[in-house]
Hints:
Blueprint: H1 2-7, E1 19-24, H2 39-50, E2 56-58, E3 61-68, E4 71-78, H3 85-96, E5 103-109, E6 117-120, H4 129-138, E7 144-149, H5 159-163, H6 169-191, H7 194-201
Parallel strand pairs: 1-4, 1-5, 5-7
Antiparallel strand pairs: 2-3, 3-4, 6-7
Helix pairs in contact: 2-6, 3-4, 6-7
Amino acid sequence: MCFFFKKRRPAVESDPKMNFLIAGLGNIGAEYAGTRHNMGFMVLDAYAEASNAVFSTMRYGSMAEVSFKGRKLFLLKPSTYMNLSGNAVRYWMTQLKIPMENLLVICDDLNLPFGTVRLRGKGSDGGHNGLKHIQETLGTTQYARMRLGIGNDFSTGGQVGFVLGPLSEEQKEKMPQICDKCIDGIKAFATVGLERAMNSVNIKAETH
Length: 208
């Protein structure tokens, strides 16, 4: 609602280069909480909790603000559902005057083993509907994305059920470690840049 937007407008740094939009993808609603497709939400929830930041209801999503080494990081969890994620990303990039190079999208990826984290500065959507809509909405594939592997342990025709299914108990136990790695990657992206962040994030996972 516009009421929330006017009441709680984010505090933007005067220098746009110091503002970053970190968009974690997922689906809203209790039925999707804890599912593989909500890995982006999980990372941002962990970062906000570790930073004592609180999400507020904004237009097209929930947002929390984190300050880190002179940078302002806006953590966005779109409320548009996965297939329309681009609407939230484009709106907040415009409102906050976020340069394209300061956008980072976090999402799940069934093409990577569980526990693997991959940071890239561009690329295809890889069959991910959220990335696909962001690409279509922004008109480019030239934006950073952090992909969290969820594996592909499903039979023919079972992809949707697998992606929208809950993590196993063993996987849940490993999520704090994965989130910590992602948070470190977010901080590196915002401070030392994409290339150096990739060097620290893109190492072979120990989990399967």
